[in-house]
Amino acid sequence: MCVIKKIIGGASFICLELLDDEDFLNYFSATWVGTKNRPPRFAHSVWSVYHRCINELPRTTNIVEGWHNKLHMVAGCDHPNFWKFITIIQNEQDGVHRSLQQIVAGEKPPIRRKAYISLNKRLLSLVMKYSKGSYELMDYIHGIAHNLTIDTRRWKLTMDQVEDPKINDTGSPQRKKAKI
What are residue 175's phi and psi, to 5 degrees? Predict the structure, then answer.
């Protein structure tokens, strides 16, 4: 079965069996799955991590976000001037070059946390068993759900914000910055 059909089947199961919030179901279908008349807002290939999991690639962009936070901290401001930015990038390039040389010299790369190594192994096992037909869709979804959690304390968006992109993450309308 093709991945797209699996996604639609899984989403249908979630919508019919697990959720009872009609507003959320409409949002979920329109944004991630699609409807009979409209494709999803985001293509399945953009957000599905099925193949990334099988190929043991990162499922998230956390490493990029970490790098961005590091650059922001080094800059010490939101918008460094051009020359400061060039210096920051040159220093970062030197650091990357040093790290690569250390790996070439035989040093081991930084060790990943055991919890993430264990989680990745469990998810890979679930995905492989499902792809081989060992798990039914419902068991697969439940298995993934047991391994992943959402920190609801960090969930800031409301349905109004999802439907109206002009509302920012504080719940108030965004204001355009005045030009000086």
Answer: -110, 140
